[in-house]
Design goal:
Helix content: 55-70%
Largest sheet: 5 strands, mixed
Structural class: mainly alpha
Radius of gyration: 26 Å
Oligomer: single chain
Distance between the termini: 80 Å
Strand content: under 5%
Number of helices: 25
C-alpha cells in the first residue's frame, strides 16, 4: 500500500511552494498600489519610537509591540529612521499625556509623507507579507500531519485565494500577524504532544509569546492551550509510524481521510501493535500503567506533568513578551497596556449592519463571514466540516485542535470586539482554510463513486475568480450573496462588492487605502477640476497631490450643490442610515467607483 509521503509529499510540497511564491508576488504588487490605511501611520510611528525610547507605553500602547517592531526594523534597514521634528520629539519626551495621546497618528503621517509613501510602505509592509507567507507554510506543514498532503496543499490554495487574507496580509496592522503566530503556536503544541521534548516545549513557549506580543487577543490562546492539553490527557495523541498507510485525503488507498491520524486511530486498541515500532502490544507499551497504579492515579500523574509543561510554556512566553517590551521595570506593563485596548474608540459609536445602527450586533461577525468570504470557500469548508465530524479515522484530539481554537476566538470576538470589520475574526480563517482543504480532498477522492471532481474544479475556479476579479481591491470584497436577493444585476467578476455598503461599513469597504488610485483616476478623468472629498482615512490626500475641499459626514446629510464629489464607501453606507440624513447618495448614481472604495459623483448645475 502506498504511503502519504510516497504518493503526495513531493508534488504537494512544490505545489504549495509555488502557491506561496505567487502569493508573495501578488501581495507585494498590490501593496505598491495602495495608500496607507487608517491604522498604519500610528503603527509605523510607534514601532520606530520604541527603538528611540525603549519604552512601549508612550506611543500606541493599546497594541503590543512585536509586529510594529518588525516593521520598524525593516524601515531602518531601508534607511528610514525616527525624525527629529517638534511633534516627534514631544511624542517620545513630552510630559503632557493629553498632548502625547494620539500624536502618533500625526507623526506617522509625517514619516510617510516626508520619506515618500511608496518607499515607506514598501519597507514597512514587507515583514507583514513575510509573516503571512509563514502562515501559509505552517498551514501546509500542519495540514499534512493532520489531514495528508492533498488536503494540506488544498488548504494553502484556499488561503492564498482568500480576499480577506490578500487584503490584510500586506498591512502594518496586527490582525493577520496574530493569526500567523497563533497557528504557529498551535502547530508547535501539536508536535509537542506528538513527541514531547525540551526543544518542542521551548518552541511552544516562544510561539505562544509571539502571538501574545502580536495582539492582545492572542491572550485567548492561553486558555486554548490549557483546554487542548487537558483534552490530550483524556484522548491522547498517538502518532503513527513513518510509512503508515495514507488516507484518501493524503492521496493513498485507505478508506477515509486523516493521514497519520488514520494510522494512529488503528493502533489505539490495546491489543494491537503499538505505533512506536517497539513490536509490543499497545497495552504493554504506551498503554501500560506503572506497577500498582490505578487509572485515577495515572490521570493525576499525567495531569501534573501537563500542568508543569504548561507552566513552562507560559513562563517562556512571558519572557518573550518582556523582551519585546524591552524588559520594562514594571513586569505588569503588558497587562496595563491590555487595559488600554480601544481607549481611543468612542464609546457612543454605533455599529452599522444592513442599514441599521446599534451599539452592538450579536450576529455582526457571522454576517461578515457569510458575506465577505468567497461562497466557494464557505461551501468547501462546509463539506470539510461534515467530513471532519463524521470521520472515524481522525482522532478526537485532532478534531479538537481544528475546532476549539476558532470557536473560542469567534465567541470571544463576538462578545468583546467592536463591530467594525471582518479583520477581527481573521484568526478564525486559517482553520476554515484547513477544513476547506479537507473538503476539496473529499470531493477529489469521491470521484470514483459520485464523480465529484468536476464540482471540486468548479469550486476551486470560483475561488480563483473571487481573488482575481476584484484585484487589487481585496479589502472591499463581498461575495455574490450581498447582491443576490436585492440587486442581482450588480453581481460581476468582483462578486457582490457593488452591494457591500448596503450591508457593512468601516474597514469592510474602505479603510483609506484608495488615495493613490484616486489620484490616477483624477489625472485621467477630471484634471483641473475642484474635488470635494469626504473620506475616513487618516493620511492626508495632499501627500498624493490631490487638491481638494474636505467635507465631513454632516456635509453629506443635505443635498449637494453642483460639483465633483468623492465619497468614501464607509460614508456611502453610513450616512443614509442616520435619521436626519437626506437620500442624495442613494438617488444619484456614481460616475465611477475608484478602487471599489471611493464613490465619485458628478452633480450637474441646475
Amino acid at each position: 500500500m502506498r504511503t502519504a509521503s510516497s504518493t503526495g509529499g513531493g508534488w504537494s510540497f512544490w505545489f504549495s511552494a509555488g502557491l506561496i511564491a505567487i502569493f508573495l508576488v501578488v501581495t507585494f504588487c498590490e501593496a505598491r498600489l495602495k495608500s496607507p490605511t487608517y491604522d498604519e501611520p500610528p503603527h509605523i510611528a510607534a514601532g520606530l519610537s520604541y527603538f528611540v525610547t525603549h519604552e512601549i507605553f508612550r506611543a500606541n500602547p493599546q497594541h503590543p509591540p512585536f509586529l510594529k517592531e518588525l516593521s520598524a526594523l525593516s524601515l531602518m534597514a531601508g534607511g528610514i529612521h525616527w525624525p527629529h521634528t517638534a511633534d516627534a520629539d514631544y511624542l517620545v519626551n513630552g510630559d503632557d499625556p493629553a498632548r502625547v495621546y494620539g500624536l502618533d497618528w500625526q507623526v506617522g503621517n509625517d514619516i510617510v509623507r516626508t520619506n515618500g509613501p511608496d518607499r515607506v510602505l514598501a519597507w514597512a509592509r514587507l515583514p507583514m507579507i513575510l509573516v503571512a507567507a509563514l502562515l501559509a507554510a505552517v498551514l501546509y506543514l500542519w495540514g499534512r500531519q493532520l489531514l495528508g498532503p492533498l488536503a494540506a496543499a488544498a488548504a494553502v490554495f484556499v488561503f492564498v485565494t482568500d480576499p480577506a487574507i490578500l487584503a490584510h496580509s500586506q498591512l502594518v496592522t496586527t490582525d493577520l500577524g496574530v493569526a500567523s503566530f497563533a497557528v504557529l503556536a498551535l502547530f508547535a503544541l501539536w508536535n509537542y504532544l506528538r513527541k514531547p521534548g525540551w526543544t518542542r516545549l521551548l518552541l511552544c513557549g516562544l510561539s505562544l509569546g509571539a502571538a501574545l506580543a502580536a495582539k492582545f487577543s492572542g491572550g485567548f490562546l492561553v486558555p486554548i492551550f490549557g483546554l487542548l492539553m487537558v483534552a490530550a490527557i483524556r484522548w491522547p495523541l498517538v502518532p503513527g509510524p513513518e510509512g503508515s498507510p495514507s488516507s484518501p485525503a493524503a492521496g493513498g488507498n485507505a478508506p477515509s481521510p486523516g493521514g497519520r491520524f488514520a494510522a494512529a486511530a488503528r493502533v489505539v486498541r490495546r491489543k494491537d501493535l503499538c505505533a512506536c515500532g517497539s513490536g509490543k502490544k499497545y497495552k504493554n507499551c504506551h498503554g501500560r500503567l506503572p506497577t500498582g497504579a490505578s487509572p485515577k492515579s495515572d490521570f493525576s500523574r499525567r495531569f501534573a506533568f501537563a500542568a508543569g509543561a504548561f507552566a513552562i510554556m507560559c513562563l517562556v512566553a512571558f519572557g518573550f513578551v518582556q523582551a519585546t517590551f524591552f524588559f520594562p521595570r514594571d513586569v505588569m506593563m503588558y497587562v496595563k497596556c491590555a487595559r488600554m485596548v480601544n481607549a481611543d474608540h468612542d464609546p457612543n459609536y454605533l455599529a452599522y449592519l444592513a442599514g441599521d445602527l446599534k451599539v452592538h450586533f450579536t450576529s455582526y461577525f457571522l454576517v461578515a463571514y457569510w458575506l465577505k468570504e468567497p461562497l466557494a470557500g464557505i461551501i468547501l469548508a462546509s463539506i470539510g466540516l461534515v467530513t471532519l465530524i463524521r470521520s472515524k479515522s481522525i482522532q478526537l484530539i485532532g478534531k479538537l485542535f481544528l475546532l476549539v481554537p476558532p470557536i473560542v476566538f469567534f465567541a470571544a470576538v463576538t462578545m468583546m470586539a467592536e463591530d467594525v470589520g471582518i479583520r477581527y475574526i481573521i484568526p478564525v480563517l486559517p482553520f476554515a482554510h484547513l477544513i476547506a482543504g479537507l473538503g476539496i480532498a473529499t470531493l477529489l477522492q469521491a470521484v470514483r463513486k459520485l464523480k465529484f471532481a468536476p464540482c471540486a474544479a468548479v469550486l476551486c475556479g470560483w475561488t480563483v475568480l473571487a481573488a482575481a476579479g476584484i484585484y487589487p481591491d481585496h479589502l472591499s470584497y463581498f461575495n455574490e450573496a450581498a447582491c443576490l436577493l436585492t440587486q442581482p444585476g450588480r453581481i460581476g467578476l468582483d462578486g457582490g462588492s457593488r452591494c457591500g455598503p448596503a450591508w457593512l461599513d468601516d474597514s469592510n469597504v474602505d479603510w483609506g487605502q484608495g488615495m493613490k488610485q484616486l489620484k490616477t483616476w483624477l489625472d485621467r478623468n477630471a484634471a483641473g477640476r475642484q474635488v470635494r472629498l469626504a473620506i475616513t482615512g487618516s493620511f492626508p490626500p495632499e501627500a498624493y497631490g490631490i487638491r481638494c475641499q474636505r467635507l465631513e459626514a454632516t456635509d453629506l446629510m443635505r443635498d449637494p450643490g453642483p460639483g465633483l464629489y468623492v465619497v468614501s464607501a464607509h460614508l456611502v453606507a453610513r450616512v443614509p442610515a442616520l435619521s436626519s440624513a437626506g437620500d442624495w447618495l442613494q438617488r444619484n448614481q456614481p460616475v465611477a467607483i475608484v478602487g471599489h472604495a471611493l464613490y465619485v459623483y458628478d452633480i450637474p448645475a441646475l
